[in-house]
User: Which sequence fits this backbone?
């Protein structure tokens, strides 16, 4: 069992990375391996809506880590999306990455998913909902938690004082490990539901 965690922060060792590591430590104790892919420090071009991914089954834009990461996610049992808050939303580089990743039809249907949002003070909930929008549309099963998955602080010292935030991240990780195991067991006994072709309706008349 394996989870791919995407760190959308430009900094690997600050709030977002520390929040992901809180989850990683718990998941690994539960027998789930975690690979962290640092996205936020990369040069990532945004989606240009060329729709070539519909033919290629991968993004047509080369030269970055997107397709390599997509292959890892396709084979994984779950995903964690982690981002700092920029102007009450997710970091710009990470949004460019996620737009392209999810537009390619990355394989997340009926897989476990979770989010990590780090913030100094406010704006955590809009970023949290923004990340979950990607997961919902991809058909992922969002891990139940005990509160919104936001942790406060920019450094290890600051985060260590957010006792509730630490509890939220560690609880989410335990729940995610449970969900991955339940899904693995269930898929052996019960086939996945049919996935009929989606209907698209244009509201311009």
Assistant:
């Amino acid at each position: 069992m394996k989870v791919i965690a995407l760190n959308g922060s430009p900094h690997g060792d600050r709030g977002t990375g520390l929040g992901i590591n809180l989850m990683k430590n718990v998941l690994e104790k539960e027998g789930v391996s975690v690979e962290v892919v640092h996205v936020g420090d990369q040069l990532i071009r945004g989606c240009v809506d060329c729709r070539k991914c519909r033919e290629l089954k991968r993004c047509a834009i080369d030269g970055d880590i997107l397709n390599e990461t997509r292959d890892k996610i396709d084979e994984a049992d779950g995903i964690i999306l982690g981002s700092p808050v920029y102007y009450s939303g997710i970091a710009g580089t990470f949004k460019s990455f996620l737009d392209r990743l999810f537009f390619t039809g990355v394989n997340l249907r009926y897989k476990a998913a979770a989010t990590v949002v780090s913030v100094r003070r406010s704006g955590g909930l809009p970023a949290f909902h923004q990340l979950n929008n990607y997961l919902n549309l991809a058909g992922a099963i969002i891990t139940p938690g005990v509160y919104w998955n936001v942790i406060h602080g920019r450094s290890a010292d600051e985060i260590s004082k957010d006792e509730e935030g630490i509890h939220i991240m560690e609880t989410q990780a335990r729940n995610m490990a449970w969900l991955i195991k339940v899904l693995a067991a269930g898929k052996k006994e019960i086939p996945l539901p049919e996935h009929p072709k989606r209907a698209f309706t244009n509201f311009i008349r």
Summary: The first helix runs from residue 15 to 29.
